[in-house]
C-alpha cells in the first residue's frame, strides 16, 4: 500500500486494487500537486463539509462514478443538490467494510457546513475523524479537531500505526495540543502533520511539532510524498 499526502488534509492510497482519496481539496489549494481533471479514484472519504475538505468531491465523484463515504447529512446533500449518484452514508461509531478495507468514523470536535448559492451556511452533520484498517495497518485521520481525551479511547480500541493530525492552530489544534494528543493519547508508530501552511491563518513550522513529539516517528511530507512504513 502506498499512502501519500497532498496538501492540507488530503491523503490518497491504493489498496486491493482500489484508489481512495480523503478530503480532496485540490482546486484552490496552492499546495496540492494533484490535477482533479485527470485524477482517478474509486472512493472518496469525507471527514466533514468545509470547502477545504469537501473540495473537488463532486467533480471527482461524477467523472469517476466514485462512491462518496461521509456523514448521513453530507450524503443526503450531495445526492439531492449535486447529483452525486454513489454515496454511502455513515455516522460516528459506525464501521463498514469496503473493497479496499474498513472505515470507522469517530468523533472530532469542530464544525461542518458548506455555503449555498445565497451565502447561507448549510449544516452537514457532525464533523468526524476516520479510522481505516487497510492491508494490516491502522490509519487514524483525526479530521479537523480540537484536543479531546477520548482520542486515548480511540487509540486503545484501535492501536494506531499511522496518524494524520492537524497542527495549524486557529481552526484546529495547534502544535502544543497536537503534540500532547500524540504523546499522551494516540501514541502512533508514525505521525504525519497536516492542515498547516495552506493559508496565512494556519502558518506553522512542522519541525517545531516534530521536536515536541516524543513517541514514534514524525514524518514531515511535502505534497506528493508517501509515508514510509
TrEMBL record:
Similarity comment text for this entry: Belongs to the UPF0173 family.
The UniProt keyword set, sorted, is: Hydrolase
Protein name per its UniProtKB record: UPF0173 metal-dependent hydrolase SGA02_12270
Question: Do you know which NCBIfam families this protein is assigned to?
Answer: PRK00685.1
Q: Which residues form the Metallo-beta-lactamase domain?
A: 7-195
- Identify the Pfam families for this entry: Lactamase_B_2
Matching InterPro entries: Metallo-B-lactamas, RibonucZ/Hydroxyglut_hydro, UPF0173, UPF0173_UPF0282_UlaG_hydrolase
Q: Taxonomically, which superkingdom? A: Bacteria
Alphabetically, the GO molecular function entries are:
hydrolase activity
Task: Please name the source species.
Answer: Staphylococcus gallinarum
Amino acid at each position: 500500500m502506498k499512502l501519500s499526502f497532498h496538501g492540507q488534509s488530503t491523503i490518497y492510497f491504493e489498496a486491493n486494487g482500489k484508489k481512495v482519496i480523503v478530503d480532496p481539496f485540490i482546486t484552490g489549494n496552492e499546495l496540492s500537486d494533484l490535477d482533479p481533471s485527470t485524477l482517478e479514484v474509486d472512493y472518496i472519504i469525507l471527514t466533514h463539509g468545509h470547502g477545504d475538505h469537501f473540495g473537488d468531491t463532486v467533480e471527482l465523484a461524477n467523472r469517476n462514478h466514485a462512491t462518496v463515504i461521509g456523514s448521513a447529512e453530507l450524503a443526503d446533500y450531495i445526492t439531492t443538490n449535486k447529483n452525486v449518484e454513489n454515496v454511502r452514508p455513515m455516522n460516528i461509531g459506525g464501521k463498514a467494510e469496503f473493497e479496499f478495507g474498513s472505515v470507522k468514523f469517530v468523533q472530532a470536535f469542530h464544525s461542518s457546513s458548506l455555503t449555498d448559492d445565497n451565502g447561507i451556511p448549510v449544516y452537514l452533520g457532525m464533523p468526524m475523524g476516520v479510522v481505516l484498517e487497510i492491508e494490516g495497518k491502522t490509519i487514524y485521520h483525526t479530521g479537523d479537531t480540537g484536543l479531546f481525551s477520548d482520542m486515548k479511547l480511540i487509540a486503545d480500541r484501535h492501536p494506531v500505526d499511522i496518524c494524520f493530525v492537524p497542527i495549524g492552530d486557529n481552526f484546529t489544534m495547534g502544535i502544543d495540543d497536537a503534540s500532547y494528543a500524540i504523546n499522551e493519547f494516540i501514541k502512533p508508530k508514525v505521525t504525519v502533520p497536516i492542515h498547516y501552511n495552506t493559508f496565512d491563518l494556519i502558518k506553522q513550522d512542522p519541525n517545531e511539532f516534530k521536536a515536541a513529539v516524543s513517541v514514534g516517528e514524525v514524518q514531515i511530507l511535502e505534497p506528493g510524498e508517501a509515508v514510509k512504513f
